[in-house]
Amino acid sequence: METKEKVIVKYFQKDHENTLKHLSRLNSLLADFAEKYEAFEKETGMPPLNQRLLKSLVEQGRWPLEGSIESFVSNQPKPLQSTYRQSLLKELAKLDFAIDNFQKWVESINSVTRYPSDLKKIENLPWNGLKLELNQNYFDSIKGHFELVLESEVDQGLWVRAEALRLAYNEFYLFADQHKRMVPKGFNALFGVHPTFPVTEVNPHPENFLPSRPIGWKP
What pLDDT, in 10s, does the model give residues 42-86? Predict the structure, then answer.
């Protein structure tokens, strides 16, 4: 069958909002680290923090910065390299807590319901310099990740019929309740067939349509 215009069945708004909150948390961690790195830079003479290094620290932990330190040390006079290295690693230890927070953030992604797999890649986040650009436009741009969408004509046809079945079921139970009758709450009991088979008739067993009885009633 031909594909029709997609139909949005459900929008998981809360999960959408929670994902943005999680990204906002990362933004706070990025700002905190940038501030600490600035002090580290002034103390050591290391190059300024750049986006590439920052992304690597979020994804991989401390070792990319250790690599930057080794590169920096290698450009110093050989007699002083050991002293430089010890001094830099001592200052680096002051950044460990902030770097560990990045790792905790990454690990906590799994606790966010319906967090988009695409956004687990740090490179795919909306970077702007050393921070994330988390504005309304971005919020709207990722909305599709939180929508249950039916695109094919078959899927849409099944959905329409399932919705009609739901409404009919609700009407069935409401009618029974209004008339003080107990009715089965499943296809198998109601129709006497496995739920994946076509229904040929309503199950004629009389116990499927009994008058309601008070709790504790015994024959």
Answer: 999 999 999 999 999 999 999 999 999 999 999 989 999 999 999
Query: Does some domain include residue 218?
Result: no
Among 122, 147, 172, where does a domain finish? 147
In the block, tokens 């310099």 appear at 129
160 with 200, same domain: the answer is yes
Over residues 129-157, the pLDDT tens digits come to: 999 999 999 999 999 999 988 888 888 88
Average pLDDT across the chain, whole number = 86
**155 in Cβ contact with 161 (< 8 Å):** no
H helix runs in the chain, sequence order: 13-44, 51-60, 63-74, 78-92, 96-107, 136-141, 153-178, 187-191
Q: Is the dihedral of CA 157, 163, 168, 172 positive or negative?
A: positive
Question: Are residues 58 and 102 in contact, defined by beta-carbon separation less than 8 angstroms?
Answer: yes
The residues, ordered by sequence, that sit 6+ positions from 68 with a Cβ below 8 Å of its Cβ are 46, 47, 53
Distances in whole angstroms, Cα of residue 81 to Cα of each of 47, 62, 73: 17, 20, 6
Backbone angles phi, psi at 207, to 5 degrees: -70, -10
Asked if 58 and 106 touch (Cβ cutoff 8 Å), the reply is yes
Residue 58 CB neighbours (<10 A): 21
